[in-house]
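Suppose you are handed a protein chain with no further information: no name, no annotation, nothing but its sequence. What can you learn? This example shows the usual starting point.
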Amino acid sequence: MKAAIRHDHVHRCVMVYPDGMRLTEPRRTANLRIWILSNRTFHPTAALFVDGKCRYRGHLSDEAIHQLEGEFK
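A reasonable first move is to predict its three-dimensional structure. Written in structure tokens, the prediction is:
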């Protein structure tokens, strides 16, 4: 049996722009989907990471994504 999803869990979310600027914000599970969708729409060049894993690559290279995932873990 699968464990129930906890909507009150807080995730570490990081938005990384191609120029290297970063914005780190805590987000609850219940708000995660809308955060990803809105940032993909309004900040399409920025990559989005949730708990160290890339959820949207933006305009970053494969090498940059790999390096950041290692850094955020």
